[in-house]
Amino acid sequence: MNEEALKELSDHVRDMLGDSIETATIAFGDLTLTVAPQNLIEVLTFLRDDSQCQFWSLIDISGADWPARVRRFEVAYHLLSPRQNLRIRVKTATDEDTPLPSATPVWVGAEWYEREVWDMYGVMFTGHPDLRRLLTDYGFEGHPLRKDFPTTGFVEVRYDDELKRVIYEPVELRQEFRNFDFLSPWEGTEYVLPGDEKAK
């Protein structure tokens, strides 16, 4: 039943929006629409206002980083239609320099979701009323969910008991040149382990 409803919805959206929809895919019980950034607000507004869609509820906006792609950042909008009892995902992609239009004119609740995507990935949103960090500190450098972000970060935060305040320091790797024995999974040994002589 749900698969048939998603197929009807996909056909309806494609008929009404035409070239604004790049792809429409049904997989794992979900309909995913892929759109170009310049068509994003048109598609989201249609999905909210159309009588056969009625996706009034914005569930989430999430990001993903694919560094090998030209448009490395993929942003997904997850929508719910309580009237139709259906969910839909709208995806778009952008690069580091091209901002996406903000969905706040369509759903006011998009504001914090977009702040989170900007904070974690660095995706900019034009027309956003208050685009600032949400989950990281104000002085934080970089965007921690990017694949090229260092796992140790750039600065470390600690409370200094002498100064009686929180201080920020560059990350210092204290055990950078450790030598591990064969029990360690991080580094091999400099000697031949029993049984390895047979590999040659």
Question: What does it look like?
Answer:
Helices cover 19% and strands 28% of the residues. It is of the alpha/beta class and 200 residues long. A hairpin with a 4-residue loop joins strand 4 (73-81) and strand 5. The model has no long low-confidence stretch (mean pLDDT 87).
Descriptive tags:
200 residues; 3 helices; 9 strands; alpha/beta
Overall pLDDT score: 87
The parts where pLDDT drops under 50 for at least 5 residues are: none
The rounded Rg comes to 24 Å
- Helix count equals 3
What is the ordering of alpha helices and beta strands? HEEHEEEEHEEE
Secondary-structure class:
alpha/beta
Helix fraction?
10-25%
β content, as a range? 25-35%
Number of strand segments = 9
Topology:
Elements lengths: L1 H16 L3 E7 L2 E6 L4 H10 L7 E9 L7 E9 L4 E9 L5 E2 L8 H12 L3 E2 L28 E6 L4 E6 L30
Task: Put the structure in a nutshell.
It contains 3 helices and 9 strands. With 200 residues, the chain is of the alpha/beta class.
